[in-house]
Specification:
There is one protein chain. This protein is α+β, with helices and mostly antiparallel strands. The protein contains five helices and 18 strands. It has a nine-stranded mixed β-sheet, covered by helices on one side. Strands 7-18-17-14-15 form a five-stranded mixed β-sheet, with no helix packed on it. A hairpin with a 2-residue loop joins β14 and β15. The radius of gyration is 18 Å and the shape is globular.
Length: 280
């Protein structure tokens, strides 16, 4: 299934995408796409529905983040060896875990507002894992049992604040709206192998990133298991898993976002995001 949330920011309603590309409203079936709805039992209940029996939603409606009730927006740094190389960093021996503020969560096509004092905002196409059942110190073998599905994340990053201002990475990763997720949550049963997905990002029509989850250093199983040792993961939590090469920081000279640009972000089978950058 392709599950989504539609409507104005802060007032999204649950929905699903039918085989014909029509959004169907789930408001009469579930209160939202979070909590027990993301469990295997909850997803099975939605899968048993006939989409044609559900009300359709007008085309062009805004999409929000595809899950509700997120408590932890976890991110993994330098998880592709070639991206680590372009960043001038050593390949990590353990996953680099940091948090993006929940304020950074945004819909897949929402505008990206660049703060007036930002000079080095950058892009990162990433595979996002959505947790379906509580995971606390789970083994790698059991990790995928806790995954509801997958989505696209653009881990927008202010590099000066992340790397040049001291302390942790979080402040460069947590700007309002710097974490668009969606357009859909694609349930795990529709993703045959999360380690074999092509991914790309275009800026103003130019392909900047062109990679694959095949080159992850730490795979999905490892990341869920490892993160759950330190942070209890709850239904609706998101782990965004790192980016392949092609970010602005790695260009010679570096290239950064400015107002008036358009990003398109895609992963095989997970849809496409489109964001315009605007002055914050």
């Amino acid at each position: 299934m392709k599950l989504l949330r539609h409507g104005p920011a802060g007032a999204e309603r649950p929905g699903m995408l039918d085989a014909g590309g029509v959004i169907r409203d789930l408001s009469d079936v579930v209160p939202d796409l979070g909590g027990a709805t993301l469990s295997p039992e909850g997803l099975a209940r939605l899968a048993a529905l006939d989409p044609a029996s559900l009300p359709s939603v007008e085309a062009g409606v805004r999409l929000g983040p595809p899950v509700a009730g997120t408590r932890n927006f976890v991110a993994i740094g330098l998880n592709y060896a070639d991206h680590a190389a372009e960043s001038g960093a050593a390949v990590p021996k353990e996953p680099i875990v940091f948090l993006k503020s929940l304020n950074s969560l945004a819909g897949p096509d929402d505008d990206i507002a660049i703060p007036p004092d930002s000079q080095k905002s950058d892009w990162e196409v990433e595979l996002a894992i959505v947790i379906g059942t509580t995971a606390r110190r789970v083994s790698a073998e059991a990790a995928l049992d806790h995954v509801a599905g997958y989505a696209i994340c653009n881990d927008v990053s202010e590099r000066e604040w992340q790397l040049e201002r001291g302390g942790t990475w979080d402040k460069g990763k947590s700007v309002d709206g710097y974490g668009p997720v969606g357009p859909w949550l694609v349930t795990a049963d529709e993703v045959a192998d999360p380690q074999d997905l092509s991914m790309w990002l275009e800026l103003d029509g130019k392909r900047m990133q062109d990679g694959s989850t095949r080159t992850m250093i730490f795979d999905v199983r490892t990341l869920v298991s490892y993160t759950s040792r330190f942070i209890t993961l709850h239904p609706g939590d998101i782990i965004t898993t790192g980016t392949p090469p092609g970010v602005g920081l790695g260009m010679k000279p570096p290239v950064y976002l400015r107002p008036g640009q358009v990003m398109r972000v895609g992963i095989d089978g997970l849809g496409v995001q489109t964001q315009r950058t605007v002055a914050g």
